[in-house]
Amino acid sequence: CLFSIFFLLFCSFMHSLKMFYTASSEVTNFPEFVIVGMVDDFQIDYYDSNTKRVEPRQDWMNKVTDDDADFWEWLTERAVVAQHVFKVNLDNLKRRFNQTGGVHIVQVMYGCEWDDETGDVNGYDQYGYDGEDFIVLDTKTMTWVAAQQQAVFIKQEWNKDKAELEDLKNYYTKECPDWLKKYVNYGRSSLMRTMSLLQKTPSSRVTCHATGFYPNRAMMFWRKDGEELHEDVDNGEILPNHDGSFQISADLQLPSDDWGKYDCVFQLSGVKEDIVTKLDKREIKTNYAGNNQGGADNHTGGKHMRAGSDGSETRGEISDPKQKIKQDRNKNNLRP
């Protein structure tokens, strides 16, 4: 990405939605079935065969119920069906590999990516068995590719189902990206951003600090008379917070001239409006003794701003559990 003194251009950010399904047998102290959902590499929800309940893992994911009050119940129903489908899948694969007891694991990873600048989307869908690739969907040609000899028959059967392949194409080019955009919006609009001016001592640098923002594509810089400063400035890296949000800071050497000429600018990818904080002694928060700056309470955080998954019918010898359930479809597993 290139930026000048006057303009800063964000790199495009590739958002991702990834779903992980894991079914296992005879694994000590581990649920037989687990689903984990991830957006931009942090967890958004979770299900396992012990709790039998899909639960959010980010507070802002609860915002989904504003659009659909029954969302979590709906998702739980589909997870329960997927659990049963996976149990049959695992049994079928053990027979295909001439296996009986012991530890065995089926894994599925599927999802999509969306470039928030170009709008480009792509999907991925792959199965693994006992730690090895088993079968993968080529989303460019919309054909299944066998990674092992035991998957050839399944590949042939799945590639015959043109209607299902068309459904998958629609899912990975439209439905999945739509869900991803919705989840990203929940995070972007729900996470509270706090921007503050901080100082350790009267002679130390002034720190401009923003925290609680999402995603992790943001820029912060100091300006003088509207132009970006490069001297007497120390720009920090974006760091993660414990809740999945992020923080960033930029230090400014105390100016000798009029403080009113200076301001701090925070820019978040995907948000049109910048957040600008003037360098004002009354706004600086500090805990050094004798401080009379910062207004009534220097121990409270500065300005607050708000930035402006399922089981399915079977195919071949194992079924694809991630397609949305359609109540009018047959969901019985095919014979092993």
Question: How do the helices and strands line up, and which of them pair or pack?
Answer:
Blueprint: E1 14-25, E2 33-39, E3 42-48, E4 55-56, H1 64-67, H2 71-96, E5 104-115, E6 121-129, E7 132-138, E8 143-146, H3 152-160, H4 162-190, E9 192-198, E10 206-213, E11 218-224, E12 227-228, E13 233-235, E14 239-240, E15 246-252, E16 262-268, E17 275-278, E18 284-285, E19 303-306, E20 314-315, E21 318-319
What does this structure look like?
A hairpin with a 7-residue loop joins strand 1 (14-25) and strand 2 (33-39). The model is unreliable at 1-11, 291-316 and 321-336 (pLDDT under 50). With 336 residues, this protein is α+β, with helices and mostly antiparallel strands. Strands 4-3-2-1-5-6-7-8 form an 8-stranded antiparallel beta sheet. Strands 9, 10, 13, 14, 15, 18 and 19 form a 7-stranded mixed beta sheet that branches. A 4-stranded antiparallel beta sheet has the order 12-11-16-17, with no helix packed on it. The chain is built from 4 helices and 21 strands. The protein folds into 2 domains: 14-188 and 309-319, Murine Class I Major Histocompatibility Complex, H2-DB, Chain A, domain 1, CATH 3.30.500; 192-306, Immunoglobulins (Immunoglobulin-like, Sandwich), CATH 2.60.40. This is Ig-like domain-containing protein. Keywords: Glycoprotein, Signal. Residues 287-336 are annotated as: Disordered. Residues 1-16 form the signal peptide. Residues 177-277 form the Ig-like domain.
